[in-house]
Specification:
98 residues; alpha+beta
Length: 98
């Protein structure tokens, strides 16, 4: 079993309320779930209006598949014009990890 995780640190565009923040973050989470069948959630910076942290996890029996899905997810988030991707943290856990 192989597990990959991504943590995205995002800077949102012109957001002036928590409602606007939710309307910017929810579509990103929904598209990642729909297109790649990964687990995704907003995991940090909930108290900051223009910042968001999204966490993502993918599990597979094939290490190459995990890497490919993480690459595709990162490309999708980086390609969103309404946000700026500040950083991405990747972690990969494989059969040999304890």
């Amino acid at each position: 079993m192989y597990v990959g995780t991504l943590s995205f640190d995002l800077l949102l565009g012109d957001v002036r309320s928590l409602k606007q923040k939710r309307s910017a973050v929810r579509p990103i989470i929904a598209e990642l779930q729909r297109r790649f069948a990964v687990s995704v959630a907003e995991v940090g910076d909930q108290d900051l209006l223009r910042r968001a942290r999204i966490g993502l996890a993918v599990v597979s029996g094939d290490a190459a598949h995990v890497g490919a899905v993480m690459d595709d997810c990162e490309r999708l988030v980086a390609g969103r014009p309404e946000i700026e991707l500040l950083s991405v943290r990747r972690r990969f856990h494989g059969e040999d990890d304890e």
